[in-house]
């Protein structure tokens, strides 16, 4: 299993996943079934998370074919630019879906602006991801290349598309900008551990006088910290892509983040949270909730440990 | 600034050299990992308490949060020890950087602020919510500002230095 294999496996999720998510969300507006809406939001969140490794493995896959002179480097750059535009819309879609899901789980009907935002961002993401897939396919498949004639819509999108080389330079050209991003990455870490970490600790039995449902009210701040870290993390990755793809600590860190996020989704949707929600001060959480909370805590601390080992483990994956 | 000789002597000790040069995963970066975990244990719960004192999540009862301070003291203890070890690895680098003194000063104020929060807000015998909040609000603002300053000053240590080791400019 190397980066090209992983990229080919993962790159279909953002394209097909957003289409399925968008379709289900549209359906939920007409059918008004709670389950359909929940499913669409979960799919959009999962796809937003899976888009991160799809994006990252693209850089690793590129390195394997960049020496092949029969492959146009311009096409690779176009695909990368399309991906660098689509990923941000995908992550914003995921963030809005998290807000909507948070309200749904607490049986609050999402505000109209949230429904509108999901609709707009999901549909834009579907288009941008389809474009990313198309430009990616053109790298290898000569039979789908349409010559030079570009549609007006494609030309308009290309206007907003970053040049990968310029985007990368922009991130690393100023040392203080880089320092600022890393500083924000630590602020996000503190918010995550202070809220989601403390909730996990409480479920495990630490300071039981604090009710779980009360502590849960701070979790949106942890999610905001996670959003801050996905943003600064992606920007840092774009700044030094091949530094990160040759680092085993980075690859494992991404895996740990995805698993920690999955643990959170399971905690809230499996009924484990519902079991805890009604527990008052001093009450012990059920075993299932404890198992999930313990897993989550171990994973978040693994993320911190692996993050710190990125620097010394550079070039731990052969170039 | 002339670099004092004793920093060179410190750097030449076996432990300091091992920290800098060891290829082992338990070398310098292991200490750095522990320092980051300590940071998470101090500032994480403290930030949550600050948010609560500023009026967010009023459902959280204040008195039991007093027990969270034990976790914060543990984090502080870890970081006091690992902080000294990190300085032992690169003493010239630390002591010739003004940002290092800024960080220590901010840590001093942040711990002082934390102790005041513990005494004035959580050690009160009345445990009257309104009274606790009234006393805690300004301390919470200072807590957030000071820890943000500590983290920023700490992060900047990676981007600012005059000497890497004795006699070797950065």
Structure described in brief:
Chain A has about 325 residues and is mainly α.
Describe this protein's structure.
- The complex is a heterodimer of chains A (319) and B (170).
- Chain A has 14 helices and no strands.
- In chain A, helix 2 packs antiparallel against helix 5.
- Chain B has one domain.
- Chain B is 72% helix and 3% strand.
- A two-stranded antiparallel sheet of chain B has the order 1-2.
- In chain B, a hairpin with a 2-residue loop joins strand 1 and strand 2.
- In chain B, helix 2 crosses helix 4, helix 3 packs antiparallel against helix 7 and helix 6 runs antiparallel to helix 7.
- The interface between A and B is large, with 36 and 37 residues.
- Give the strand line-up of the largest sheet of chain B: 1-2
Rg of chain A, nearest Å: 21 Å
Quaternary state reads: heterodimer
Work out the count of structural domains of chain A. Answer: 2
Low-confidence stretches of chain A: none
Protein traits:
heterodimer; A: 319 residues; mainly alpha; Four Helix Bundle (Hemerythrin (Met), subunit A); 2 domains; 0% strand; globular; B: 170 residues; two-stranded antiparallel ribbon; 72% helix
Itemize the secondary structure elements and their pairings.
The complex is a heterodimer of chains A (319) and B (170).
Chain A: H1 3-10, H2 12-31, H3 34-65, H4 73-105, H5 112-140, H6 152-160, H7 164-172, H8 175-204, H9 212-215, H10 219-239, H11 241-245, H12 248-269, H13 272-277, H14 287-308
Helix pairs in contact in A: 1-3, 2-3, 2-5, 3-4, 3-12, 4-5, 7-10, 8-10, 8-14, 12-14
Chain B: H1 5-12, H2 14-21, H3 28-53, H4 68-89, H5 91-95, H6 98-122, H7 129-156, E1 163-165, E2 168-169
Antiparallel strand pairs in B: 1-2
Helix pairs in contact in B: 2-4, 3-4, 3-7, 6-7
């Amino acid at each position: 299993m190397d980066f090209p294999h992983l990229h080919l496996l993962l790159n279909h999720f953002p394209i097909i996943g957003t289409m399925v998510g968008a379709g289900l969300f549209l359906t939920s507006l007409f059918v008004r079934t709670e389950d359909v809406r929940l499913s669409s939001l979960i799919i959009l969140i999962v796809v937003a998370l899976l888009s991160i490794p799809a994006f990252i493995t693209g850089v690793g896959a590129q390195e394997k074919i960049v020496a092949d002179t029969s492959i146009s480097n311009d096409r690779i750059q176009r695909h990368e630019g399309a991906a660098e535009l689509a990923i941000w819309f995908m992550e914003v879609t995921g963030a809005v879906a998290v807000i909507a899901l948070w309200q749904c789980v607490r049986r609050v009907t999402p505000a109209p602006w949230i429904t509108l935002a999901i609709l707009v961002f999901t549909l834009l993401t579907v288009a941008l991801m389809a474009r990313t897939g198309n430009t990616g396919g053109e790298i290898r498949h000569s039979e789908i290349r349409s010559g030079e004639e570009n549609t007006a819509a494609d030309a308009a999108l290309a206007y907003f598309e970053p040049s990968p080389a310029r985007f990368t330079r922009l991130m690393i050209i100023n040392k203080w900008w880089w320092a600022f991003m890393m500083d924000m990455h630590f602020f996000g870490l503190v918010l995550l551990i202070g809220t989601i970490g403390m909730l996990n600790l409480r479920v495990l039995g630490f300071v039981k006088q604090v009710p779980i449902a009360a502590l849960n009210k701070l979790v949106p701040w942890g999610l905001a910290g996670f959003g801050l870290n996905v943003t600064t993390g992606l920007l840092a990755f774009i700044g030094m892509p091949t530094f990160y793809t040759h680092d085993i600590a980075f690859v494992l860190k991404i895996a740990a983040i995805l698993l920690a996020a999955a643990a959170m989704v399971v905690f809230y949707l499996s009924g484990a949270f519902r079991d805890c929600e009604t527990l008052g001060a001093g009450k012990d959480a059920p075993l299932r909730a404890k198992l999930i909370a313990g897993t989550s805590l171990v994973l978040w601390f693994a993320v911190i440990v692996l993050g710190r080992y990125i620097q010394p483990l550079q070039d731990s994956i052969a170039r | 600034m002339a670099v004092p000789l004793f920093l060179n002597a410190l750097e030449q000790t076996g432990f300091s050299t091992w920290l800098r040069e060891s290829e082992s995963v338990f070398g310098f970066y292991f200490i750095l990992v522990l320092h980051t975990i300590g940071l998470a244990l101090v500032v994480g719960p403290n930030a949550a308490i600050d948010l609560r004192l500023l009026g967010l999540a009023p459902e959280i009862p204040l008195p039991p949060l007093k027990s969270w301070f034990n976790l914060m003291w543990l984090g502080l203890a870890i970081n006091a020890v690992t902080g000294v070890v990190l300085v032992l690895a690169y003493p010239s680098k630390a002591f010739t950087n003004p940002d290092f003194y800024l960080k220590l000063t901010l840590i001093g104020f942040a711990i002082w602020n934390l102790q005041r929060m513990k005494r004035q807000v959580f050690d009160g015998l009345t445990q009257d919510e309104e009274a606790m909040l009234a006393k805690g609000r300004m301390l919470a603002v200072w807590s957030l500002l000071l820890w943000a300053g500590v983290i920023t000053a700490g992060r900047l240590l990676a981007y600012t230095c005059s000497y890497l080791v004795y006699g070797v400019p950065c």
